Predict the 3D structure of the following.
Amino acid sequence: MSVATRRARILRGTGYYTAAFVTLVFVATPILFALLGGFKDNQQLRENALGLPSPWNVSNYTQVLASDTFWRQVFSSVFIAFVTTFIVVACSAMVAFVFARFAFRGRELLFTLFAAGMMFPFAVAVLPLFIILRSFELLNSPLGVILPQAAFGLPLTIIILRTFFRSIPGEVEEAATIDGAGPWLFFTRILLPMSRPVLATVSVLALVGSWNSFLLPLVVLQKPTWWTLPLGVTQFSGQYASDTARVLAFVMLAMLPALIFYAFAERHLISGLTSGGTKG
Amino acid sequence: MRKPLKQARALVAASAAGALVLTAAACGDSGESDADITWWHIQNQDPLMATWQEFADDFAEANDVTFDVQPIENEAFKSRMGTAAQSGDVPTIFHTWGGGVLSEQVDAGLVRDISDLDCLDQIDPIALAPYTIDDKLYGMPFDTGVVGFWYNIDLFADAGIDAPPETWDEFLTDIQALKDAGIAPIALAGADQWPGHYYWTYLVMRIVGLEGLEAAAEAGDFSGEGFVQAGELLADLAALEPFQPGFESAGYGEADGQAANMGEGVTAMELMGQWAPQVQRDASGTDGPENLGFFPFPAVEGGAGLGTEWLGGGNGYAVSADAPDEALDFLCYIMEPDNYARAIVDGNFTPVAADVAAVAPDLGPDTQTVIDALATATGTQLYLDQAYPPAIGGVINEATEGLILGQITAEDFVARVNDAWAAEA
Amino acid sequence: MGGRGVTLKASPPASPAVGRPDADAGMRPRRRPGRPGAGTLATFIVPGLVLFLLFVLLPVLFAGYVAFFRWNGLGGVPTDFIGFDNFRTLIGDEVFLGDLWRIGIIVVLSIVVQLPIAFGLAMLLHQRFPGRTAFRLLFFMPYILTEAVTAVLFGLIFSPRRGFADSLLAGLGIDAQIGWLSDRSIVLFVVFGILTWKFFGFHMVLFLAGRQNIPDELYEAAAIDGATGAQAFRRITLPLMGPTVRIIVFLSVIGTVQLFDLVYVLTGGGPFHASETLAITMFEQGFQRNQIGYASALSIAMFIVSLVFALIYQRYVLSRDLQGSITTAGGVR
C-alpha cells in the first residue's frame, strides 16, 4: 500500500469521525443539559449553566421519584399504551387474516376503506372525536384515549400484517384444513405463532405511538386521574415554573422509559418504521 | 439480532396478557374521580395551596364527604375549563371570574344557582355583581380588587422620577426617563395576551368613559372614534419599546415571565390586578421589590373617563349544576371568619367580607392600597376577556397582542372586534 | 399520533407480494368443504370494522357536517346552518393563510437543509468504521422522545435571560441577546431547528435502509469499468436513492401539515401566530373560543390540503416508483 493511499485513508477516517462527532454534540447537548441540569439547583443553573453540577444535588430526582403523581402518570401511560396495542394488534390481525386469505365480494372495497383511513390526519378528527366521545360518556376515561388511538392505528397495522399473512404458503393452510382445523384454529394455532416477528414490529409501533400521544389525551382527559406522562410534564412545568431544575429532572425521568425501551426494541422499531418506506 | 427479537416477543406476549387483565379491571371504571366533590382552583402556590387542601381535608372529615382537590396553573386552568365546559362535565367546584364566560356556562346548564347560599350576608353585595346573571347568583367571590400599575419605587427614583405619572403624556415621559436610565420600564407577558388587553381596555375607559364602553358593548359596536384612538395610543406606547427583552414569548407567572421580572427588581412596573405582589414573590422566588408602589392608570387628556373608574374584578367559585349541597356548605366553610381570615393572609386576598375589619383587622400595605382604591371607585369594569363571551374576549386579547407587536393597526383592531360581535349576534 | 403512517397507494394489486411465487395462495377463492361461511368471516372483521367506523370514519364525516354550522359546541346538536360561510371566512383568514405559508417554509427548509444533512450522514454511516452502530443509535435517539416532552425541554433551553442557549453562546464568547422564541422573524427557524434535531435521525435511518438496498455488485461492476467513486455516486447511488428521497419528502410534507404537539407546547403558536400551525389554529378556535363550527371547517381544510397534496404528488412524482404499496410509520416530518 502506498503512502498516498494510506494518508488518504487516515484523512477520510478523520473526516468521518469529525462529522459524526459534530452531529453527536448537536444531538446530545440538549439531553445532557436536562440530565445534568436535574442534578443542579436553580442557583447553579443560573451561575454555572455549562459546567458539571457542583455539588451534585439529587433532591430534584428523588422528589420526583417519591411523588405519587409521577408514578400514577407512568402507570397511566403504560396502561393506555399496552391496552391500545393489544386492541389494535388483535383487531388488525383478524381483519388482515380475512383480507389476506379469503376471497369474498366487497373485499377490495372494504380494504380500500380501511387503507383510506391512513389519509385522515389525526388532528382532523380530534374535534368531532371529542364530541362523539362526549356523547358516549368516554371523556375522562382511559377508554376515550385507547379506542380512538387503536382505531387510528388499524390501517397501517392491517396493511403490514396483510402483506405478511399473504406471504405464508397456502400449503400450510391446506395441511391444517385437512387435519380438520377451522379458520379459528388455523388463525390462533398456526398463523399467529408463525407471525411473531411481524407482530412484534407492529406492537412496538403501536406502543411508541400511544406513549407519545399528546393531542388526544389533552382533549379527552381533563381530570388528572388518568393523565399520561406527556400531559404530566406540561402540567408540571407550569406548576413549578420557577423551579427550573426540578422541571428538568421531571423531563429527564419522563424521557427515561422511552430510552430504555429503545435500547431493547431498537431493531423492531426501526424495521417497523422503514417497512415498505424504502421498498421502491 | 436474536436477543432484541426475543425481548420484543416476550414483550408482546406480556402486553397481550397484561392488557386482558387490565381491560377487565378498567371496564366499569369510567375514569371519573370517585370523590364526592372535585375542586379546581388556581392557587397553585404555597402557602395557600396547602391551606385550601387543609380546608378540604377538615371539611371532608367533619361532613363525611370525599374531596379531589386540583390546583391548576392559571393558563392551563383556562384551557382545561374550556374543554371541560364543552364536555358537559365540569368539576363540582371551580374557579370563575364571572362575566360572559360564566354566563355561557350558565346558558349551557352547567352551573348551579346559588342565590340561597347561607353565608351571603357575610359578603359585600358589590362584590357579587360579576357573578350575578339574570338576578341569580352563580358564583361566590372570595377576592376582589382592581387593576393598576404596581411599580418599583426605587427604580423610579433611579430614573429621577419622584412621583408616579397622572396623565398619559407624563407616563410616556417617565417611560423614556426609565429607558434612558437603562431600566426596562414595563414587564409584560406577551404570550399570555390577557395582560396586554388591560392597556387597551384602560385607554378606552379613559377616552370614552365607562359609560361609553358599556354602551358600545351593549350595541356590539366598537366603531367609535375613541376605540381607534385607544389603539393608536397603545401602538405609540409599544413603539417606544418599553417592555422587557423577550416579552413577546413571556408568560405571566413563569420563570423569566412578567411577574418574575418585577419580583427580581429588573423592570420598573406592571399593569396588573390585586394579586400582583403575591405572584411577584412566587414566580421569582424572592421577597419581591423592597418598595412597591401603586398608581392608577393615567388620565388621557380630553378623555371622558374618570380616574376613579377602575378595571377590576375578583376571584370566585362556581359549583356545577349537579353539585351536592355539601359543595355549597363548603363554600360557606371557606367564608367562616377564622378560615377566611387565614386565607386572606395566605393568599394575599383583598377581602370581600361585608365587615372587613371583623375578618381581617390588619391587612398588608399592598392589600390596603387596593381597598382604598376600591373605596373611591365610582365604577368598575370587569376584565373584558371574562366579561364578554369567549369568542369576543379571545379576539380582543389576540388583537391586543397584534397591536403591541405592530402587526395590526388600530383600525384593524376595531374591525376585528366588530366582526366578532357580529358573528356572535 | 407517533405511530401512524401513510400509504400512497392502497389498492391490493399493488402489494409487494404480487409477483412472488406464493402470492396467489391466499387470493384463490376456495370452494371446498370446510370453507368458512359469511358468519365466520364477519366475526373476524366486525371488531376492527366497528372500531374503525366509530372512531375514524364517523368523526371525519361529522366534522364535514358541523363545518356548515355556527355552533359553540356547548351541549345539544348544531342547529344554526350557515352554508359555506365558515369556508368563506376561512379563505380570507390571515391566520389560516399564514399557516399554509409557514407549512411551505418548513417544507422547503426540510428539503434544502434537513434532508441533505440526513442523506450525508446516512452515506457516512454506510461506511464501515468502528463505532458507526453506536453513532446510528445515538442519532436516532431524539426521534423516540415524546414531542411534548421535547418541547418543554427546548422551552427551557431557549428561555430568555437565563436560558441554556444564551449561556452556551456566552461560553463560546458570543454575547448576543437573541429572542429565540420571542422574535417573530426567527421563531419559525428555531422551531425548524428543533424539528431537525428531532427528525433528522429518522430520515437518516430511512436513507440508510435505502442505501443498503442497493446491491454491491453494481459498484463492483462500475469499479471494473474504471468508474471513480464520485462517478459511481452520481450514476448509481443518486438515481437508485430517488424513490427513498421521494417518500421522505412526502412524509415530511404530510407530517408538517399535522404538526401540533411540539409547537403548541413550545410557543403556543406565538408570538402573534409567527409559529402557528393549522392544527393549533383549529385547536384554539375549537376549544378556547368555542367556535366548533369554524374549527371543523379548518379540520376539513387540513384534510383537503393533505389529500390534494397526496394525490398530486402520487400522480406526478411517485407514479414511477409505485411497484408496491408504500407504507411507513411514524409521525414524521
Summary: The longest strand of chain B covers residues 309-319. Confidence is low (pLDDT under 50) at residues 1-32 of chain B. Residues 148-311+383-424 of chain B form a domain with the D-Maltodextrin-Binding Protein; domain 2 fold (CATH 3.40.190.10).
